[in-house]
Design a protein that fits this description.
Layout lengths: L10 E9 L3 E8 L5 E7 L6 E3 L5 E3 L2 H11 L7 H17 L4 E3 H15 L1 H11 L5 H12 L1
Parallel strand pairs: 4-6
Antiparallel strand pairs: 1-2, 2-3, 4-5
Length: 148
């Protein structure tokens, strides 16, 4: 880091604070010219893409997961905090894969994995849309799976 005013590398940090959006604000002073300035440090997140079933690519959107979970969990004893935590767990798992592109199936499978642990009724609701149930037998199959 160099002073933005004189270019000196002789800098000291006066104060460090957490800022909104997971950034760190640092107040610094140049020991040569005496001027002060602020820097911000943040974790660089890699935006990854989701390959849809029809082949299109879409930017990953955590809010889409939250909205889908809200519908599945409607009138269930599941809080918004639990929904957000589940969605964040899915995002973290996808990031750990280290891929720039994931399939919509990978996303949906992770959502179902965590939703099954959270609320089985919401799991069946989500599965009915995600797996496009068309016959009563589709529901029976998932219900048998949930009972295991």
């Amino acid at each position: 880091m160099k002073c933005p005013y004189c270019g000196s590398g002789n800098i000291r940090t006066l104060e460090t604070r957490d800022s909104p959006n997971n950034t760190i604000r640092r107040r610094k002073e140049c020991l040569d010219c005496g001027r002060r300035f602020t820097t911000y440090e943040y974790v660089e997140t890699i935006e990854f893409m989701v390959r849809k079933k029809d082949g299109r690519l879409e930017r990953f959107d955590l809010n889409k997961i939250v909205r889908g979970l809200q519908k599945a969990c409607e009138k269930r004893p599941v809080t918004m905090e639990q929904i957000r935590e589940l969605a964040e767990r899915v995002r973290q798992d996808l990031m750990l894969l280290g891929k720039e592109e994931v399939s919509s199936q990978e996303v949906g499978d992770l959502v179902m994995k965590y939703l099954k642990q959270l609320d089985r009724v919401a799991y069946v609701r989500f599965a009915s849309v995600y797996r496009r149930f068309e016959e009563p037998e589709d529901f029976r199959r998932v219900l048998r799976e949930v009972r295991k």
